[in-house]
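Could you show me some protein's one-letter sequence and the numbers that encode its backbone in two labelled lines?

___
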Amino acid sequence: MQAPAVGLLITVQGTAERTLQPILSTLEPAVSAGQPAVILLSFLNPGTLALRGIFPGHLDLELRGLTNNGTATADRIDSGGVYNIQPQGFGTTAYRFLMPMAFTGEVVVSAGGIPGSSVRFNVTNEVASSTNLMVTPEAATQPPGTGLTGEHAALGRQEQRRPDHEGLDSAGEFFRDHFFGYEPMYILMGPDHPNTKLQFSLKYKLIGEDSWLAQQAPWVRGAYFAYTQTSLWDTSAPSAPFLDTSYKPELLYQWQDIWRRGNFPDWMRFDLDTALGHESNGREGDASRTLNQAYLRPRLIMGYEGGWQVTVAPRVWVYLGTLNENPEIAAYRGYAELQVRAGKRDSILLDATIRAGNSLNRGSLTLDASYPLRNLTDHWLNGYFYLQYFNGYGESFLRYQERSSTFRIGYGLFR
């Protein structure tokens, strides 16, 4: 089956090119065999520049049921197909196809050219009601966002932002527009003490994309508040205590696509992060640890988006203020680290981080490997199968002077 032109490269402001992220979804997961079903194709724009999304006229679908497989063609409902998608926004268009009579029960529908994305339908033999996926021909020919009512007003439309706290989906829209993954998030377990490690990390966009300030000064769109929390947890002990937790808030600024504004090829781009950060373990007395730092992290990304990529990201920092609670921290953490990542969005990702202390026998090495669980579970389980190996000093902020070596395995939410 020939894959449709879903992930087209779109020219950005007449310079470099970039790929939008396609995702499949549906508003009506319940459908009757032999009746029309609607599937939504959304293009997400994760960057800082407006992109143009081109939606194909049809999608070649693969259907996988409990007892049989099949194919179908979904036709675009609206007569358009080209949308300008704002940074951190999305564009959505609806496609309609006929659910074959041979299917019943749970059916997984995927589209060629959209790896790692699928939709699950619950197919019955009952006759569809008058409100179930009945999109009239007149409505299908209307421009995006018109001709449909009720829940189906979202079909065939570009993103239409609403004020905060308006409607039932305001909370979902708020988190979608403001919160993003930052550092990897996972829960891992291993044989050594402490046997469990958890990390949670998010960044919050400080200036809204549609705000007056962002329109007048586009550079403010790169400002974030970031927060990362890392815990070492001894679940094998009788009371399962948390042995150490690091709380790391940051004021972060990210410059993205710096080289994309010039004549560099599309398979290479340069980003730059800078931040003011605080780290503490929330303890008192001799167990208290705290520091402040400012860092700079350039990031060179080689490879096409959506394909295999290699990222090289050195980070250098300076300590701010006093280090009285941990006076030797610089000798073990040093002032620089190097991170190298290699992988693909819908496949394996390998990550190596080397941190240098003030001498060759200090510092640390962290190796991570992750793989999408959707690829291992026929798309029914999100997240990642996650492996991590650590060797060196400083995994515990409390005991940064102690050397440790441990291997853990677990579940990743974000990588």
Summary: Residues 108 and 120 are 5 Å apart (CA to CA). The first helix runs from residue 137 to 140. Residues 1-17, 128-168 have pLDDT under 50 and may be disordered. The chain is about 5% helix and 50% strand.
